[in-house]
What we know:
Number of helices: 2
Number of strands: 8
Distance between the termini: 23 Å
Largest sheet: 8 strands, mixed
Helix content: 10-25%
Amino acid sequence: MTPTPLSLLEFPADDPDRARRFWASLLGIELDPRRDGEGRGWQTHSEGAEVGVHERGTGPGDTFSLPYFTVTDITTTLEQVRELGGSVVHPGERWAICKDSEGTPFGLASGD
Length: 112
């Protein structure tokens, strides 16, 4: 069985401190400040899928929870999203925000 490529589950927050306390306590995790290239906010830095929290904003990935999936070739995967009936909301070389064929948002992260 191939392991899932889920790499990050991102939660936007109106009150980031409150959200960090909630997720850290609920899941027994540490949410550390993000490193260079990870964006703004906080996230776990451990094996397996990461959990992230950031202040809610108006950007394409700032208003709702997003699962991010790691892909080998993000450019090819974005083409495939479109071919399969999805859409690309925010293209990028390291990460991108998309919607599936049913309009559900998700993120892609480059595994390079």
